[in-house]
Design a protein that fits this description.
- It is a single chain.
- This protein is α/β, with parallel strands linked by helices.
- Helix content is about 45%, strand content about 15%.
- Strands 2-1-3-4 form a four-stranded parallel beta sheet, with helices on both faces.
- Helix 1 (about 20-30) crosses helix 4.
- It is globular, with a radius of gyration of 16 Å.
- The N and C termini lie far apart (about 40 Å).
- The structure holds FE2/S2 (inorganic) cluster (FES).
- FE2/S2 (inorganic) cluster binds near residues 69, 77 and 80.
Length: about 160
């Protein structure tokens, strides 16, 4: 799919405070930066990220969602990253069922010292989403304001 050159994918990355958040910080502070359109959301463990958070993030307009947790076997809460992976896989299946690209959601695992790998994953995610194009679930701003006004009128 060919996209307009001004399309900059908006990606939300749920990052575990114990590993991926530090890796993102390391990447940002070194020469291996990642696209500024990737917004980091710190979570205590990826096990706290529920399927509904992933779907809601897409509904709210993100073009892609990345969940970044500790390396397998290194989760500070034992199995949080394993549960997160199951949820990511589940949401990918749901997206496919409704005709959306499952690639819009992905799980990655990094340690706190893997800033380069975090940046590589973030860049790869951004390129993947850029090739897919804007999230079709996103509500256009003009429509959103009309919808918001309508909802305010009901209160
Ligand atoms: Fe990092 Fe669970 S503490 S993924």
């Amino acid at each position: 799919m060919t996209q307009s050159p001004e399309f900059e994918p908006q990606i939300v990355a749920f990052c575990c405070l114990h590993c991926a958040y530090a890796a993102a910080d390391l990447a940002g502070g070194s020469r291996c930066g990642y696209p500024s359109s990737i917004k980091i959301v710190a979570v205590p463990c990826t096990g706290r990220v529920d399927s509904v958070h992933l779907v809601k993030t897409l509904e709210d307009g993100a073009d892609g969602v990345m969940v970044a947790g500790c390396l397998p076997g290194r989760c500070h809460f034992q199995t949080g990253n394993l549960h997160a992976k199951q949820r990511v896989d589940h949401v990918r299946e749901l997206l496919e069922e409704i005709g959306l690209e499952p690639e819009r959601v992905r799980m990655v695992n990094v340690s706190a010292g893997m800033g380069v790998q975090f940046a590589e994953n973030a860049k790869d995610m951004s390129e993947t989403i850029a090739a897919l194009g804007p999230n079709p679930l996103r509500v256009p701003k003009s429509q959103a304001s009309t919808t918001d006004a309508a909802l305010e009128g009901t209160n």
